[in-house]
């Protein structure tokens, strides 16, 4: 009866004997650890997941002392190499002789909550910067129009062509500032949505990058051909993916340490995936991964802000515009970076028509 109840829990539960061999795990634990209970029964706990030697010693101490303990934000590694962030509670089960007979481990994943928190922060930051830029753009464009208009009137009053050159400079620089403000605001039109194949869009971007890179890097493709067509604006989606992929290309080409320069494009279909507060039945994930030097930790939190760039000659608009485009499609862009691996994940709902 107890096993039936535990089998229906959403919490992952394992039972170990005194030799730290697995005697039982429920379906939730099977799913979390990606293992089969039939194959894992009787094996050491390290065959199901491994943290470090200290964690094994802590389990042995719990058996001897009979005292439970909880570990927060543990980084564990699964047999397939995947890493999980989780909390776990260890509870010794006492027998009739008042000694430990086995221990119970309850696993609570933190990855999901951490990702939701990061997504919420990204969305709030994006909305805040968007409103700030819109207000700033309004304050800039109004006097800019007046300056340009005044320069045109002055130019007409001058008969000397040499003097007209100065007013032309004012007009051209006013136009340049106006264009910069427009770029800060991102796409000015609503998406012109139509059904499209995401891999066709990606291949168009790959073609442009290959020409720019002049065969100085390799593009590796890992596509999921089962992904259904998206409803999206093709030109805007190309622009968003191009901005991200071009950043990866520039980081690689400017890095003298990386010999085998690679950009890997991965596509996957994710089911029952949450973006922000909304759960989607099916989501397309496009991952753009490069093996360059990585993004400095202080820059990661402000990466999608306008005018933020890690390159001396960068404008800091590419990622901000890409996030705006994807946000218009009810999606989101996330970034994880470490040395020799920077990964941008673009999530686009498949079933949502915007």
Kindly describe this structure.
- By secondary structure, this protein is of the alpha+beta class.
- The protein has three domains: 2-109, PAS domain (Beta-Lactamase, 2-Layer Sandwich); 114-185; 194-349, Heat Shock Protein 90.
- The chain has ten helices and twelve strands.
- The protein has helices at 2-7, 27-33, 37-40, 53-65, 111-157, 161-185, 198-213, 234-253, 297-300, 318-328; strands at residues 12-16, 22-25, 69-77, 83-94, 100-109, 194-196, 218-222, 230-232, 262-275, 278-290, 332-338, 341-349.
- The strands form three sheets. The chain has a five-stranded antiparallel sheet. The protein has a five-stranded mixed sheet with strand order 7-9-10-12-11. The protein has a two-stranded antiparallel sheet with strand order 6-8.
- Helix 5 runs antiparallel to helix 6, helix 7 packs parallel to helix 8 (234-253) and helix 8 (234-253) packs antiparallel against helix 10.
- It is elongated.
- The model has no long low-confidence stretch (mean pLDDT 82).
- It catalyses: ATP + protein L-histidine = ADP + protein N-phospho-L-histidine.
- Residues 135-352 form the Histidine kinase domain.
- It is an enzyme of class 2 (transferase).
- It comes from Marinomonas phaeophyticola.
- Its EC number is 2.7.13.3.
Domains, number:
3
Instruction: Tell me the CATH superfamily of the largest domain.
Output: Histidine kinase-like ATPase, C-terminal domain
- What is the overall pLDDT average? 82
The total beta strand count reads 12
Provide the CATH topology of the largest domain: Heat Shock Protein 90
Helix/strand-derived category reads: alpha+beta
- Give the DSSP E fraction (strand runs of 2 or more residues): 25-35%
Order of helices and strands: HEEHHHEEEHHEHEEHEEHHEE
> Mind describing the biggest β-sheet?
5 strands, antiparallel
Strands of the widest sheet, in order across it, are 2-1-5-4-3
Distance between the termini: 49 Å
Q: What overall form do the CA principal axes indicate?
A: elongated
What Rg is obtained from the alpha carbons, in whole angstroms?
A: 27 Å
Low-confidence stretches: none
- Helical segment count: 10
What is the CATH C-level name of the largest domain?
Alpha Beta
**Helix coverage percent:** 40-55%
CATH architecture of the largest domain: 2-Layer Sandwich
Catalytic activity: ATP + protein L-histidine = ADP + protein N-phospho-L-histidine
Domain Histidine kinase: 135-352
Keywords: ATP-binding, Hydrolase, Kinase, Nitrogen fixation, Nucleotide-binding, Phosphoprotein, Transferase, Two-component regulatory system
Protein name: Sensory histidine kinase/phosphatase NtrB
């Amino acid at each position: 009866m107890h096993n039936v109840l535990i089998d229906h829990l959403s919490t992952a539960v394992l039972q170990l004997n005194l030799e730290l061999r697995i005697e039982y795990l429920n379906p939730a634990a099977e799913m979390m650890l990606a293992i089969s209970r039939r194959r894992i029964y009787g094996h050491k706990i390290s065959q199901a997941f491994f943290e470090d030697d200290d964690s094994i010693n802590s389990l042995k101490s719990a058996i001897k002392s009979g005292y439970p303990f909880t570990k927060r934000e543990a980084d564990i590694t699964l047999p397939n190499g995947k890493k999980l962030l989780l909390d776990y509670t260890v509870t010794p089960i006492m027998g009739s002789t008042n000694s430990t007979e086995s221990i119970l481990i309850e696993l609570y994943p933190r990855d999901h909550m951490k990702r939701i928190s990061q997504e919420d922060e990204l969305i709030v930051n994006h909305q805040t910067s968007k409103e700030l830029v819109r207000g700033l753009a309004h304050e800039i464009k109004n006097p800019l129009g007046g300056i340009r208009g005044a320069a045109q009137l002055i130019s007409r009053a001058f008969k000397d062509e040499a003097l007209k050159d100065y007013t032309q400079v004012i007009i051209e620089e006013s136009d340049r500032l106006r264009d910069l403000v427009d770029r800060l605001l991102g796409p000015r039109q609503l998406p012109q949505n139509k059904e499209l194949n995401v891999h066709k869009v990606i291949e168009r971007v790959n073609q442009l990058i290959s020409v720019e890179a002049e065969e100085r890097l390799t593009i590796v493709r890992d596509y999921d051909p089962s992904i259904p067509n998206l409803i999206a604006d093709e030109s805007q989606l190309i622009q968003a993916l191009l901005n991200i992929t071009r950043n990866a290309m520039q980081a690689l080409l400017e890095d003298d340490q990386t010999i085998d320069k690679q950009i890997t494009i991965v596509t996957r279909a994710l089911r029952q995936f949450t973006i922000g507060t909304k759960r989607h039945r099916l989501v397309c994930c496009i991952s753009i991964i490069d093996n360059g030097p990585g993004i400095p930790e202080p820059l990661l939190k402000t990466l999608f802000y306008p005018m933020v760039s890690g390159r001396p000659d960068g404008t800091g608009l590419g990622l901000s515009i890409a996030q705006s485009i994807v946000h218009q499609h009810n999606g989101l862009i996330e970034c994880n970076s470490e040395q020799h691996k920077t990964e941008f994940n673009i999530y686009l709902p498949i079933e949502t028509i915007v």
